[in-house]
Structures are given as C-alpha cells and as structure tokens.
# Entry
Amino acid sequence: MKKILVYLSNEPKPSLFDLIVAYDSDVDVVLPYGDISKDDITDMVYGCIFTRRPKKLINTAILIGGNDSDLADKMMKKAKKTFFGDFKVSIMADPNGNSTTSAATVVKIKDKLEDLKGMKAVVLAGTGPVGERVSVLLHRERVNVTLTSRKQEKAEKVCGKIKEKYDRNVSPKQVSNDAECLEAVKGADIVVATGKAGIQLISKEVWSQCPSIKVLADVNAYPPAGVEGVEAADDGREVDGKYLFGAVAIGDIKTKGMRDVIRKMYEEKGAYMDLEKIYDITWESLAVKKERYEKGDKIM
Amino acid sequence: MKKILVYLSNEPKPSLFDLIVAYDSDVDVVLPYGDISKDDITDMVYGCIFTRRPKKLINTAILIGGNDSDLADKMMKKAKKTFFGDFKVSIMADPNGNSTTSAATVVKIKDKLEDLKGMKAVVLAGTGPVGERVSVLLHRERVNVTLTSRKQEKAEKVCGKIKEKYDRNVSPKQVSNDAECLEAVKGADIVVATGKAGIQLISKEVWSQCPSIKVLADVNAYPPAGVEGVEAADDGREVDGKYLFGAVAIGDIKTKGMRDVIRKMYEEKGAYMDLEKIYDITWESLAVKKERYEKGDKIM
Amino acid sequence: MKKILVYLSNEPKPSLFDLIVAYDSDVDVVLPYGDISKDDITDMVYGCIFTRRPKKLINTAILIGGNDSDLADKMMKKAKKTFFGDFKVSIMADPNGNSTTSAATVVKIKDKLEDLKGMKAVVLAGTGPVGERVSVLLHRERVNVTLTSRKQEKAEKVCGKIKEKYDRNVSPKQVSNDAECLEAVKGADIVVATGKAGIQLISKEVWSQCPSIKVLADVNAYPPAGVEGVEAADDGREVDGKYLFGAVAIGDIKTKGMRDVIRKMYEEKGAYMDLEKIYDITWESLAVKKERYEKGDKIM
# Structure
C-alpha cells in the first residue's frame, strides 16, 4: 500500500522545499493542498481516515506547512480532535520549516556543549516563530532563556504567549542598541540570532567582549549575518574561543531531521509530531549522522 | 507505461477522499485539476488522447468528481463526444461519490433480498443526487419506486428529470409529516433515506407499524439518523424482523466498488463508466468480497 | 533517489499534455505549479537547489511551460542566474510546446531535404512564437528566411525581436493577398505555415505555380489547413513533386523529442535546454526513430 502524505498549506502555493523533502523521505505520494483554512481541516481529516481501513492508516499521514505558525498549530490541534478511536493518522506541523529549523539549531548547540542545564541563553530578535521555538527548546534543556526585541513590550508579549502556549518561562528584554545588547549577552553562554534576513543583531565588537559566550548561532542565510562574523557554512568554526554556527550547517541537519520525522510518521499510527517530538527525532538524526561520518561514510 | 488518472473537479480543491481511493486502485499517477468547467473538457480530452499512441491509451483514464452531479454528467458526455476513432480513453463520473454510494446502497439491498423484481421501494427525501441515482438503480431492478420530498412539486420535478435523463419511471409523493410518511411507506418492502445529514426522515414508530418493510437503509453517517434506529455500522442488523443498513456498511462496499471501477478503466480502452456500469461492477465487488470472507480471508 | 520535475506555468492550470509527456519520460514525480510569475522563480529555484546535496541535484529538473513564450524565456534566464557553483539543476522552457513543435518542424524538413544550406524558406504568418522559433532554427541551418505577416510593420517588429533575442537575420515581408503571397514564395524551396488554426495562408493555386518549392509544412492541426492541400497526417506525402508535412506527423516527432529532452535533463546536471539544444536533441530523436523503423521495430 502506498505511503501517502497529505500536505496542507494556508498559502496558495505549497512549499516546493517541503514537497521535495517529503519525496526524499520514502513517501510514495504527496497530495498537496494550498489555500487551506482551519475550516477545511475536518473534511481533510475525514478524507484521510475514511479511505483506508483503520489498520492500514499507518500508511497515511498529514504534514501542515504554510507561512502562519500559529494557524498551523491550531490546524494540528483541530485535526487531532477530529480523530477518534482507531480512526487516526500521524500528523506533523512545520510551517515555513520553523519547527525543524528551531530543533536543528538547538540540537547543534547541545551537540557542541553537551549538557546545557543551568546555562544562560539569549535569543536575539526572538519574537518570530523560530525565536519562539528555539526559546522553548532551550528552556526544555533547562537553560535560562532571555528573548529580546527592539521593543520591551513586544518581547513581553511573546514571552507571555510562550508561557501560555507551551508553559515555558522565558525572560523578555529590550535590545535596541549596542549598549542594551552588551547588557543582554553579558554572562550568557549561548547567543542565537533569529531575526529577519539582512539585519545585523550583534556586532563582533559586542560579543568579543563577553568571555562567557561559548556558542553563537545564526539561522539567517543571507548577508549581512545576524551575528557579525558568522558565515552561513560555519559548522562549529572556532573564533576567539567561541563556536560559530551558520544557516547552511543548521539547514543541513534541519533537512535530515525533517526527513526522519516524516519517515517516523509511517512507523507508528497516529504519531503526533509536535515541536518537542521533532526535536527529539532531530537529536537522534544528528547522532546517526555523526556515527556514519566517523565510520568514514560521507555520503549522506 | 504508467497508469495515469486525470481527475477533474468543478470545485477548487479536488476531493482528498477520491485521490486516496484512486491511488489505492493500482493507479500510478493521479493528475488532479480543480476549478474545471465544461469549457475545459475539450482541452483536457486532447491532453489525454494526443499524448500517447492510440494503442497505449488504455493506460490513461479520466475520473470526474466535484460537487455538481448534473454538471459532471454533462462533462462526461462532452468528453465522450470529443473522443474519435481510436483516440479515446476510459472515463467515469462520480461527483461527491454519489454514483458509487447509490450503487453500494442498492447492491446491499439486493444482496439481502436476492430478487427485487416487483417489490415496492420508497426513497425518502430523494430529490438530491443520491436519491435520484438510488431510484434509477432500483427501477432498473424492476422495483416500483416512490420518491418523496417535503413538497409534492419538488418530488414531481425530480421524477420528471429522472424520466428525461434516464428514461426511468419513478412516482413522486409529498411527505411532510408522520401521517404522510406512514401513507408512503405502507406496503413498501424497501425504505431508503437519502436526505441531508442530521434530519430524521422516518420515526421508528412509523416504520414499526409496517409489516411489509423488509429493509431500511440510511446513507447518512452523522446522527440523528434519517431512519430512526439505524446506526452507521449496521450491516443488515435485524430489528423487529427488518434488516437495517447504515452509512459505514454502505460506505465500505462503496469504496471497494469505486476502486474496482477505477481498476477496470485500465482493462478496456474507452470504457464508459456511467451509473449502470458502476452498479454492475459494485455488485461483482460485493460478490468477490463475500467469497473471500467465507474463505476466512478477512483482510480486504 | 526519485527523479523530480518541477513544472512551472504562468497559467492557472498546468498543461495536462506536458504533465503526461513528462511522466512518459522516466520522471518519477512531476510537481506542477500554476499562476507562476517571474517573481516566484527565485523561491522555486531555492526549493530545487537547497533540498538535495549538490551531487544529487542531477535528479531534480525544471520545465517551464505556460502560454507566454517570452515570459517563459525570461523565467529560464532568471533561474539560470539564481544558480551558483554546484547549486544548479537542469532546466528547459517549452511554453505551449512551441520550442519542441518548432524543432520538430525543422527537423522534418531537414530530414527530407538533407542539406538546407543556402536554401530559401518562407515562414507564413510567422509572427507568433512558433514562427519565430522556426525562423531561428532555419537560419541556424543557413537558410535564407523570410517571415511574413499581414502587416509589413508587424513582420518587421518580429524580425527585429529575432535579431535582438537570437542574433539571427530574418527578412520581413507583408503578405495580405494572393499576389503578395505568390511574390513571397516564388523561388523559395521551403514554405512553412505557422498561423492561427482555421486560417488558410496559401492556396494550392499559388504554391502549384512555384516549381522551386520542395517542401510545404503546416503546424496547424484543425481544418482548414494553413497550406491548402496539406492534411494533418501528411508525413512527406508527394503532391505535384512537392513533399507535404501536416501537424500530426510533426506532432509525433515533437512529442518524442520532448520526451528525449526531458530524459537528457537527468543525464547532465545543470543542462540548459534552450531552443537550439532542443532542436539538436529532436534531430537525434528522429534519427533513432528512423533506425528503429528500418529494423522493423514499429512499436515506439
């Protein structure tokens, strides 16, 4: 029986990136739907659960993409509520790749620093969906997380949302100039930049003044970098005793993690791939990748 | 050569249900098109018949879905007219699953009662596409069919349409209350409810007064049932000497029949799968299913 | 790894013809996108080049269709500019099948006349995309080409565009009546009609007065023919010492050529299938076809 992935997006054009990654994840058929609203979810779920016998539903799964992360999360929850008894399929939400990107970022940091417990992290310009998710995952690793925005009010709003949505505690802080930035990152072990492409969030002059900083990561692929000095290909490059991670290195494990999450949807019927599950699988993906690399198998 | 199914729908989003069922019918590739009007049919047919050599066209077929049954029938006829000589492909119309659902309903009844000839049937709230098709198929089995509506005028209009479209004779009758309902079903052998979801069409009090009734079927899956007392999973359950059929049992053979019709489109080039052909194939599907069941093979 | 073809069209509905031909070209998955503008190209290219490792990108390719030939050419150029280093995929533009149709037309003529060098050709009603491309390909075979239009001004405009876009020299000529037509084709070896369906461009009375004419080709499949006397199935039929080619015979090698071009996109990473490349491959396709035919292998 064919492995079918139903791909739902609020955007008119389903993400080509996601469709290709899905086909590279041992899925036989991807059925892409654009312009999907929350109102369409019930019918889409019925289309999934009533077309194959319950025991065969392990071969059907849903991936929610699109460019609205909160909507995608709501769609996923609505789908879950529509399932009943044996009539359920695996489901994953990864709008704009935000969950897999966030997971890959934190996985990279954890892999370098090993135990994150008790460390301090600053998520610069963290008010978008990647900043939100990176903060949540760092807090789950028992890191003390500060999330910054150019406006204190906005940072507070997002931290409030994180508390409500994930029950995670993140501290808000305004960073609108170099002085505030230095104040924010002083004493931090980890700095992650999650701002929009093309905006520098922290200068090298600032971060080089902070001996506590061990890792700087930047999810933005296009210059100028959010963290001055980080290059997209940086995969733990050491500069002044700090390890740098850029978007290409993060993107590499992100894509691998995404493939593995999709594959695992077909191993357990009704798997619910939320952010934390995606993170756990991405962590395993990195471990497998490193093991293969150490064995000399560079073809991944 | 890949088996390609061109799926045409007047709706913007092609039915997920249909696409999954198609992929479960040994089709290699489904090409779904939404927002299709009758004007698009010529180009779509040309796309089918001019891309492969005539002798290879057995590997291309068209399935017309959508939510407008009359339009779908017109599209199917227009496609047939566009074919010429060896330049033709198999085609099937099953908008909203109405033809396969109707076929499955009558097949279930015939399977239980064996010979329907000369029996009396009442199709309650039969003015929609399923009521129309169930009436036609029952009449083809030489059943005397009465089709009801809350308004006599509407029942007459649909019976007129059935006469014109299928050359089948069905009697109209107004049923707007329990007294009229009792009058309609008195003496009937078969009662089928084909109304909208959530509207009870006949109470148990009414049908239990009619010793003539042998079978009650209800195509609506969501409570309250159209026939009070019928449950969705009922597959011939006996209550007060009558056999009850619900939407899930009907849906089961409907999906199987649909798969078989799609499969058969690739066995004969230019097969024209209209309602009667769909019914005949669904009847065979049920026979095969029962045979396998009797052999102890429960995995279907 | 699956061979993926990303199909981009400016039209809302991607061409069914193209999708079926693509699936018949050993492509595993076609991902069709409609309503594509030039602005979407960057994201689409990123979706292609960032989802698989560079060495695996030989398995991803782009086909640009649609109904706007100039736009398609611009999209193709923009895609090429977006590629960098090893991050590139094969790409082909064939809007409305114009490039493959033009290639097939000239290939048919060359196959019949062997060496076209120094010959004279008239492309009647050549102001559309097929006329433009046929003129370019004939000029590349060192033919002296005259392109006609009902208005001198329009013919000049298109010849100017051909000079600018392809650096090919084609002479414009007004043909708005039989006398002008006779004047245009007198002394010509080759006449190709590339006008709209249903408009006769040259009468038999005119062309039978010209002993120099060796080949008359007509790309229009629907009567009346652009060249009076040509039938769609004509594949070099001799009439009054002239060879006639109709749309079905041309379409046959067009489809074969298109399949071969698509196949070759997966043999060389980053292949750039412009008009001339399409022509060269179609020429090989015809040679292979003839060889197989001579061996008695008629199943193609």
Summary: The first strand of chain B starts at residue 4 and ends at 8. The radius of gyration of chain B is 20 Å. Residues 7 and 32 of chain B are 5 Å apart (CA to CA).
